[in-house]
Write a structure and sequence with these properties.
Blueprint: E1 5-8, H1 14-27, E2 30-35, H2 38-50, E3 55-59, H3 65-78, E4 84-87, H4 108-134, E5 141-145, H5 168-188, E6 194-198, H6 216-227, E7 238-240, E8 243-244
Parallel strand pairs: 1-2, 1-4, 2-3, 4-5, 5-6, 6-7
Antiparallel strand pairs: 7-8
Keywords: NADP, Oxidoreductase
Family: Belongs to the short-chain dehydrogenases/reductases (SDR) family.
InterPro entries: NAD(P)-bd_dom_sf, SDR_fam
């Protein structure tokens, strides 16, 4: 049988790389490392192939239509189909003193524009571009990597650790990603496709400056579970490794 072909955006490092590694090692997937930096993507894929695993890389910048078009064209020529898309790439640039400083000098407009351009618009453009290849699969699956911080229900829960942290742009972008996922769940329903949203939890990545959280392998767990669901599995859900997350 042909291996399952999976594209993971932002998979050269962090959670995306942990997801790609686990899918290739534990499930026999052929993983495509989507990486804005072509060289680091090639290095990540080469590391997997040296272990006898199935992996390729493709330059992929989700804020560039040209990059997306070129990446999808390459996947179509090489594989002719895409079974799984994992929308992992994203940014967190809200300014929080002592923790994040990327947006310290950005205007509110620029902060929201840059955040939504990557986390929402770029994710939507990539997913839409992948749709024809996903529809060629016998069993298409999409996993959107979101966050508890995008939960409208949890936004007013004072017991959450995020309640007093001012991440307006990031929170809005992830709430929008959740709605985007539900739209694609409807789109792939006729093909029996499964589209779900995963929160990896607080993980030590570049987004958190590696200051706190679980290892990337832990953050990858629920994403991998959703990417490897069997036909007839759940769709249009939002969850983390502990269970359902309220919308």
């Amino acid at each position: 049988m042909a291996p399952t072909i999976a594209l993971i955006s932002g998979a050269n490092v962090g959670i995306g790389n942990a997801v790609a590694t686990k899918l290739a090692k534990d499930h026999g997937f052929h993983v495509i490392i989507g990486s804005r930096n072509a060289a680091t993507g090639q290095e990540a894929a080469a590391k997997l192939t040296r272990e006898g695993l199935l992996a390729s890389s493709v330059q992929l910048d989700i804020v560039s239509d040209e990059s997306i078009t070129a990446a999808i064209g390459w996947i179509e020529r090489e594989f002719g189909v895409l079974d799984v898309l994992i929308n992992n790439a994203g940014i967190l640039i809200d300014y929080v003193p002592g923790f994040t400083d990327a947006s310290k000098d950005l205007s509110t407009r620029d902060l929201f524009t840059q955040t939504l351009s990557t986390n929402l618009v770029g994710t939507a453009c990539l997913t839409e571009a992948c749709l024809p290849l996903l529809c060629k699969s016998d069993f298409p699956r999409i996993v959107f990597v979101s966050s508890l911080m995008g939960s409208l229900t949890k936004a007013t829960d004072k017991s959450t650790m995020y309640y007093k942290i001012d991440y307006k742009a990031y929170d809005c972008s992830k709430a929008a990603v959740n709605m985007l996922a539900l739209n694609y769940a409807r789109s792939l329903e006729p093909q029996g496709g499964l589209v779900n949203v995963a929160c990896p939890g607080l993980v030590k990545t570049n987004l958190t400056k590696h200051l706190m959280g679980e290892p990337t392998e832990t953050g990858a767990l629920r994403i991998v579970e959703l990417a490897t669901l069997e036909k007839g599995g759940p769709t249009a859900t939002f969850s983390d490794r502990h269970g359902p997350v309220p919308w």
